[in-house]
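Milestone M4 deliverable, item 7.
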Amino acid sequence: MKYTLSDRAYCKLILHALKHPLRSVCGALVGKANGDVVEVIDAIPYLHSTVSVAPNAEIALEQSAAYAATSGNTLVGYYHANERMDDDRLGKHATRIADCVERSGGAPGGSACALLVDASALAEATERGTGRAAVRLLVKRGNGWERASDQGDLRIGGGANAKLKALAKDGKEKNVSDFDDHFDDMATHEDRKSTRLNSSHSQDLV
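Output delivered:
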């Protein structure tokens, strides 16, 4: 399978990680499968402080799947950023959520993906707007998620890091809201999918 990642989805998931640099963050990838290509068009932030809390993850999964369906899309993957910069694996709890997203999504069997934020590439991407994409592609193999042998299977627009740099420079990570924010502050209830970030910066993210 090949995977395409929109600038919107890429920037949003990285901004989610930037907003909580000392915590693990996670979310779902929204899109659709067309033949042997899975198109990731958006990201829905899930959690930043309770990745291991099952009820919160279950609520996020159920509501994000319903939200994706309203636009004719489905959940096609999972993204994750680890708390430690030197940790480049999906942990036990992250793997469980990724598995749930895969089972609940609409990507053809075995074609859902996971994206792991690559901390070693963040500085160049966000400060200079250059370098490789700050995510690594993982695919399901057996009972676990492993780094894809060909990272070229993930295609991201050449200007994605330039857009990310501009958004990070303007502090737009503050506009990212996830389900933990919702539980902490009911005022974020209507924007837990960070639609505010989509609408107010659509020219930057599209």
